[in-house]
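B., you asked whether I could sanity-check this one before it goes into the benchmark set. Here's the sequence:
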Amino acid sequence: MNITFKSYCLICCCWMMQVFALSFDDLANENTVSQADGKQVTMRGFLYPKEDGSWILAPQPNMKSCCLNTKRHVVVLGDFSNIPSYKAITITGTFIVEPQRYIIKAKI
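And here's what the prediction gave me:
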């Protein structure tokens, strides 16, 4: 197989920009979470606004505020004010693991 330098760079670039697809079930697996830390991820769920301007990504629509404040929840940073909480959305961004929460710095 004859690979040119340009092809090699393209292959490496695509491999390095790999996007992990995470589910809420994946968050229970510490190995999966640690592999995704600092990487680009996609995650599907329902957005609920927080008072500080961030958003919580939840696995189900129409959740009450008491259900959203779980021990480890997914906080999404970005402006999604035009997205209703009853519509599922797929978020893409950088996944960050913190002691009390997960953060996705979303690309808007």
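One thing to flag: The chain has three helices and six strands. Otherwise nothing jumped out at me.
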